[in-house]
Design brief:
2 copies of one chain form a homodimer.
Chain A: H1 2-27, H2 36-46, H3 53-66, H4 75-94, E1 103-104, E2 107-108, H5 110-114, H6 116-134, H7 141-154, H8 161-171, H9 178-203, H10 208-235, H11 238-241, H12 247-250, H13 256-260, H14 262-278, H15 288-299
Antiparallel strand pairs in A: 1-2
Helix pairs in contact in A: 1-3, 1-4, 1-15, 2-6, 3-4, 3-9, 3-15, 4-6, 4-9, 7-9, 8-9, 9-10, 10-14, 10-15, 14-15
Chain lengths: 302, 302
């Protein structure tokens, strides 16, 4: 039974990733588009083997809300925009002035291949391109505006992704506390995962109650996801991880296992996923695919 | 008469800048908002003495299109978003990996004061915040979506600001040609000036014909503006300029005077402004304020 579930999750993820990869290829400037160096750099990082987890969460949420079993037309473009924002944050995070990482998903990082100047601009351009894609979404303008606002907030400096990156930088100078680690996680990774769900709900015409449930689901599932990321950094080597392992410990990052230990961290992640699932009860079987993906995220080994 | 015009331009610019400064202060996270380092960095660069030329162009365009003599309600928020985008590009342009500039508008640049990591993230966050502000504009959703799309395009990697920055980087390795210089200028500075006008037109409900005229006006005025910037870099010292003078020559940047000489450059800028003004004939006296600002831009000494 577990084997069968696993199989089906891999199918959901595989089909989703394929749809997103096609959308990304269509929505990014081609590698021959002048000025070519930046477009090659953007594509290098976007097509470096990401699993498209956020876009898949977005699409599966939209499918659940619509309820017909189909995803709403064009939702993969929203997913692609979210993946561009995720990739921009990785490129900038990897820069020498920030995490100084040479390896990401088993491949040399953007600045290693294209130099720092182009890497900075490629990150900038992926953020810009994401908003251009959002402004061309195939949904009514009021929903597009709400999606732009939600995404900007979720990636911003007050409670979003950038806030998390800054807190993370500042935390290196302090002993990590439970509160700090949770605040960093909620902002740095949690906010983008949360908005992947919420924006999928807005795109598919979800009610205010739907959006609120998705926000709460995302709050818990996003935290679980980041806890597992922290655990993997401790328990796996660089080859398994596709990036430099043990970096969090080496740089004294504020992580969940650093505060609670590995065993408790895994338990916390599992408990959070169960709590998250309670939000989806109202959707019955329609939530099965989304739940399977969320479950996979906390059971993955890399 | 010329003195009187000058006086009145300074009033237009002064009043406009005050309105924009208030809007920026209201729309940016406060300096006490956690995480404070990034919000201080954002404010450091935003409030480093910019003249708010792009927002003033935007607001005066909106006033001209509306035709009542008043600016439309809330247009200063659009102007503020444009200024955030302009500032983000300056912060990243000044980084050691790019232009490596320590001085901007007579003040130490963002990375000099706050370090490279925070400067990169502050630039990122200003871009993000700009889109959040755009998504809250006080105009109908379809216009907001059109503004977001226009601005993303104007600041993007294909024909916008980032494309110009990349071409500029790449040009340092080549002898500058007239075509290359014009292409860089159109993208690097021209596109944001053009969209300042165009988005002001969209915000105020301008017709397709209005938008087309504004685009053409902006195309010519924007190029003139950048030519004068290049000239000032050659003819002024660092104190007059408020930034490191002669940097373009030292780094063999592709500039208008490098191709045509200073005298011809000034003539070209003046001719372009005259051609730009021809687009505004249809608006009669309603265009006077906008024309005064544009004229000022090519007659300024710093």
């Amino acid at each position: 039974m577990i084997t069968k579930m696993r199989e089906s999750v891999r199918e959901i993820l595989g089909q989703g990733a394929e749809l997103i990869d096609h959308a990304l290829d269509r929505l990014l400037p081609s590698a021959e588009q002048a000025p070519i160096s930046i477009h090659r750099a953007m594509r290098h990082s976007v097509f470096a083997g990401g699993k498209r987890l956020r876009p898949v969460l977005c699409m599966e949420t939209a499918r659940m809300i619509v309820g017909s079993g189909q995803v709403p037309q064009g939702v993969e473009e929203l997913g692609a925009a979210i993946e561009m924002l995720h990739t921009y944050s990785l490129i900038h995070d990897d820069l020498p002035a920030l995490d100084n990482d040479d390896l990401r998903r088993g491949k040399p990082t953007c600045h290693v291949v294209f130099g720092e100047a182009i890497a900075i601009l490629a990150g900038d351009a992926l953020q810009t391109q994401a908003y251009e894609v959002l402004a061309r979404l195939q949904c009514p303008a009021p929903q597009t505006v709400e999606i732009v606002r939600s995404i900007a907030q979720a990636t911003g400096s007050v409670e979003g992704m950038i806030a998390g990156q800054v807190m993370d930088l500042e935390a290196e100078e302090h002993e990590p506390t439970a509160e700090l680690v949770e605040a960093i996680h909620r902002a740095k990774t949690g906010a983008l995962i949360r908005v992947s769900l919420v924006s999928g709900g807005i795109y598919s015409g979800g009610s205010a109650a739907d959006i609120e449930r998705l926000r709460e689901f995302g709050r818990k599932a996003g935290l679980a996801f980041q806890i597992i990321d922290d655990v993997l950094d401790v328990t796996q080597n660089s080859t398994q991880l596709g990036k430099t392992a043990g970096k969090d410990v080496a740089s004294e990052k504020a992580t969940w296992p650093a505060v609670y230990g590995v065993e408790q961290s895994v338990k916390d992640a599992e408990r959070l996923v169960d709590e998250a699932f309670a939000q989806l009860t109202v959707y019955g079987e329609r939530a099965d695919r989304l739940k399977a993906v969320a479950r996979y995220l906390v059971e993955r080994t890399h």
